[in-house]
Structure formats: structure tokens, C-alpha cells
Write a structure and sequence with these properties.
mainly alpha, globular, 77% helix, 165 residues
């Protein structure tokens, strides 16, 4: 079922991120809804489903945001490394581990964008990017994490029970 729900949900969130959220920015910043959903999906539903959604998310975000095509896919690629850090022995991760992974992914996501723009000659100061963009966005993403985690957790109960049988 998640393959029927996941891609349209990712596409919808990518469109919301680009079209609706700019109207509700806090100090010029907005949360990364797609990134939050992918981290939660990875932690609660497992890598098989999440990795398929990473490709859909990277292409969707790449088509609708103003960055060079492929930047979003490159920025989302470290999710695979997080799965390896998480380890195969952990079947289900809690909110604390999900929050930690979201912090790491938000930093790597924005640093990847910064690096791509730096290679194109369009970047500013790294310290300013970290203090003015990345750290406040981490806070926004963690605030958005709570309701997303709850919704995915409630919708994933049967999947998690089946994996323990």
C-alpha cells in the first residue's frame, strides 16, 4: 500500500513546500516537509520503502525548486548512509533516534545545497549559512517532526507488527 500512497504524498509535499509554505515563512525560513517525511518513513517503515521514495522525492523537489536539477537527489542520498549507521539489528527506531537522524540529515541536506551553489560560484559565507539558515531550519524540522512521526506511526502499525512475526 505504501507504494500507492508514498509517491503521491511526496509529490504533494514537494508542491506544498514550493507553493504554499513560502507564504508562511518564519524569519524567512520554512521546514523541509519532504525531508522530514523521508526520515520518519525510513525509521518507521524501513529502508525498502524509504529508498524508493528518496528517488521520487529527489526528482520531485528537483523539478519544482529553483536549484539545479539533481541537487535535491544528491542532497537526499545520505539517507542510505544513515540506514547503514542505524544497522540491521534495529528493527524499529524511536522518536529520539528519528530526531537525531533528522538533525544530521538537515545539516547534510543544506550543506549539499551550499556546496552545489559554491561550485557554481553563487555561495555566500558558510558560517552565515549555518547560523542563519541551517540551525533555524533544524529547529523548524524538529517541530514538524512530531506530528509527521505520529501520523506515520499510526498508519504503520500493521506493517511493524508483520515484520516481527
Amino acid at each position: 500500500m505504501s507504494y500507492y500512497v508514498g509517491p503521491p504524498l511526496i509529490l504533494l509535499l514537494a508542491l506544498v513546500e514550493v507553493s504554499v509554505l513560502p507564504m508562511f515563512r518564519i524569519s524567512g525560513l520554512q521546514p523541509n516537509l519532504v525531508l522530514v517525511l523521508l526520515v520518519v518513513w525510513l525509521m518507521l517503515r524501513g529502508p525498502k520503502e524509504a529508498f524508493a521514495l528518496v528517488a521520487v522525492a529527489g526528482i520531485s523537489i528537483g523539478l519544482v525548486d529553483g536549484a539545479p536539477l539533481g541537487t535535491a537527489l544528491l542532497a537526499l542520498a545520505p539517507l542510505a548512509l544513515l540506514q547503514e549507521v542505524r544497522g540491521a539489528q534495529l528493527r524499529e527506531s524511536g522518536l529520539v533516534m528519528t530526531t537525531l537522524f533528522l538533525l544530521i540529515m538537515t545539516f547534510t541536506y543544506h550543506l549539499t545545497y551550499f556546496l552545489v551553489f559554491a561550485l557554481m560560484g553563487e555561495a555566500g559565507s558558510l558560517s552565515a549559512a549555518i547560523t542563519r539558515v541551517i540551525i533555524p531550519t533544524v529547529v523548524l524540522n524538529v517541530l514538524v517532526l512530531m506530528p509527521v512521526y505520529l501520523l506515520v506511526s499510526l498508519s504503520s502499525q500493521e506493517t511493524r507488527r508483520a515484520s516481527y512475526v
